[in-house]
Design brief:
This protein is of the alpha+beta class. It has 2 domains: about 80 residues, FAD/NAD(P)-binding domain (3-Layer(bba) Sandwich); about 55 residues, no CATH class. It is about 15% helix and about 15% strand. It contains 3 helices and 7 strands. It has a 3-stranded antiparallel β-sheet, with no helix packed on it. Strand 3 and strand 4 form a beta hairpin. The radius of gyration is 20 Å and the shape is elongated.
């Protein structure tokens, strides 16, 4: 398969709309490194805008209008729509559970919901949507369901956000843990 000579990625930004930099969901330092590396290989980054329309030109290119009024043409458009929670239809209210504004099931650090004795793990909690996080949440929930006192700590979760094998991110970034005063 041949790679296109030009591509416009659309979407994949931060869930709260804070897309003013590359890798908006990652630590500012990691994002700055990726931005620098993109510039080195002559990739132009336009962050903090949205694609408002896309149409194909008679020449076969994709014409993309950005929210800042800028027009970009490229061979391909890469659409990254992200992930959303899907708790509809689970009849959570039958168990007395409520959901948050994104449809997540709120839990405490013991993975317990607002209903004593009912635990939730994984993507439905709205935390880091990673398989190894869900696995550890399951261990915490199981221990607590059996009378233990385990706590979930997200301070050092490995999360791959890499351009190549020399760069990666740990979930101990200013975005995820700034509220804890950690740096």
């Amino acid at each position: 398969m041949n790679s296109p000579s030009s591509t416009v990625p659309s979407g994949g930004g931060h869930p709260d709309g804070n897309d003013a930099r590359a890798l908006a969901t990652e630590d500012e330092d990691v994002s700055a490194i990726i931005e620098r590396e993109l510039k080195k290989v002559k990739i132009k980054l336009i962050a903090g805008v949205q694609a408002v329309s896309v149409e194909q030109t008679p020449e076969g290119l994709m014409a993309c209008r950005l929210s800042n009024g800028q027009d970009i043409r490229a061979e391909k458009i890469l659409v990254s729509i992200g992930r959303t929670l899907n708790t509809d239809g689970l009849r959570l209210e039958d168990a007395g559970l409520t959901t948050g504004k994104r449809g997540e099931i709120p839990v405490n650090d013991r993975m317990e919901t607002g209903v004593p004795g009912i635990y939730a793990i994984g993507d439905v909690t709205g935390t880091l949507m990673l398989a190894h996080v869900a696995s550890h949440q399951g261990l915490v929930a199981a221990e607590n369901a059996l009378g233990g006192d385990a706590r979930m700590d997200y301070a050092s979760v490995p999360a791959g956000s890499s351009r190549d094998r020399r760069s990666a991110a740990w979930a101990f970034g200013s975005i995820r843990h700034g509220r804890r005063g950690c740096r």
